[in-house]
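Table S2 (continued). Query chain:
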Amino acid sequence: MKYSLTVLVLSSIACIMSGSLASAQGTPNREDAIRQCISQAQGEVPNVSGDPNDPAYSRRLTIYAACMARFGERP
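Corresponding output:
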């Protein structure tokens, strides 16, 4: 009985850890999405002052957010 409980606990920990590793492996995909979306936003709206009130700044932000959403990522 004690052996069965130990096996159950260890297998549960293994399942949890494998899920953590799978989500950590998704990181390069996010980084690729960020690179591609920044490039797209800068390509479509090249000159931005950095002022949040600038319409070009808002447009670039919108393009970036939409691109990230297409990849299924949070901006």
